[in-house]
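We were asked to recover a plausible sequence for a given structure. The inputs and outputs are reproduced exactly as logged, with field labels preserved.

PROBLEM: sequence recovery
POSITIONS: 328
GIVEN STRUCTURE:
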């Protein structure tokens, strides 16, 4: 699958639900995101069919997202079905980690290749505030417990996704040091100004690197790829894992973009910033042929933008939904 700019699209971010058991402040409003009716969400069979069609046209990697994907029943079977598709090389997942520990054995049995755990702070009070978890809950403890999983499942790659927010108490150095003695990688993801996330202070890759260099001046670039996407990695002597950066704002990587997204309602979205794309659900539910679905996918690729314009004044067709609704 190629777009008009010759980019080879071989990576799909597949949202399977808009539901989430957190209401993180940079992801959705305080009263929660608008949830669609369950009959509007693609069935597993419908989503798998799209992936099969894409795989025949060059799709190789799938990232399962949400909302929070682990709140949907039967996700382990979905992972196994995706792994069984001819041509699919890697199936991974991004999760907030709340249900991960109890579901990890089944996910491993299903063949999951890698898991990204979203964790923005090791400060319990700040974690509860950011995720809007009750202070009396054990949500923080359940997520932190997942940091033991990389040693129990050495064949599965684990990464921590941390969004620097420019707020007191986040302690980004402490987050980076999770990779010191554990077989996992810590990635810092620049905030994208989408939905409620636009309200937060922007913290750049250089800002975080400078914090790390104050204690670890020998941090250096790591040239090997460690995943499907645009993350660039650094290594620190003596650390087991690596430190990564996904810096769409300060280091725009659109020229090498290899991904598209499908929302839980079957909308094939070609760029995180824009609302442009193609609705596949209607075709799927009207018994459209594979050839028709293929043409709709090709149609979406024809409108894939050359690059995002988050730093520009003119933001035509900008996405209005929150991250949880689009599987960002």
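RECOVERED SEQUENCE:
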């Amino acid at each position: 699958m190629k777009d008009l700019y010759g980019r080879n699209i071989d990576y799909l971010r597949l949202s399977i639900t808009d539901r989430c058991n957190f209401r993180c402040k940079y992801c959705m409003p305080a009263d929660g995101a608008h949830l669609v009716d369950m009959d509007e969400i693609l069935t597993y069979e419908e989503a798998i069919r799209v992936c099969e069609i894409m795989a025949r046209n060059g799709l190789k990697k799938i990232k399962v997202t949400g909302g929070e994907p682990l709140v949907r029943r039967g996700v382990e079977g979905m992972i196994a079905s995706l792994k069984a598709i001819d041509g699919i090389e890697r199936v991974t997942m991004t999760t907030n980690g709340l249900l991960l520990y109890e579901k990890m054995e089944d996910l491993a049995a299903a063949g999951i290749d890698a898991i990204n755990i979203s964790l923005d702070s090791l400060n319990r009070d700040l974690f509860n505030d950011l995720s809007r978890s009750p202070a009396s809950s054990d949500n923080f403890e359940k997520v932190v417990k997942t940091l033991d999983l990389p040693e129990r499942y050495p064949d599965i790659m684990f990464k921590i996704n941390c969004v620097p927010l420019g707020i007191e108490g986040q302690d980004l150095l402490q987050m980076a040091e999770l990779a010191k003695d554990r077989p996992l990688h810590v990635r810092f993801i620049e905030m994208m100004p989408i939905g409620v996330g636009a309200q937060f202070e922007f913290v750049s890759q250089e800002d975080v690197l400078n914090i790390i260099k104050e204690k670890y001046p020998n941090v250096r670039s790591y040239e090997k790829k460690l995943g499907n996407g645009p993350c660039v990695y650094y290594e620190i002597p003596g650390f087991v894992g690596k430190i990564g950066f996904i810096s769409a704002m300060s280091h725009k990587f659109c020229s090498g973009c290899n991904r598209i997204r499908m929302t839980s309602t079957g909308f094939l979205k070609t760029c995180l910033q824009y609302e442009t794309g193609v609705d596949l659900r209607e075709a799927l539910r009207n018994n459209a042929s594979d050839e028709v679905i293929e043409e709709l996918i090709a149609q979406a690729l024809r409108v894939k933008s050359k690059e995002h314009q988050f730093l520009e004044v003119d933001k035509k067709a900008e996405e209005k939904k929150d991250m949880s609704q689009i599987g960002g």
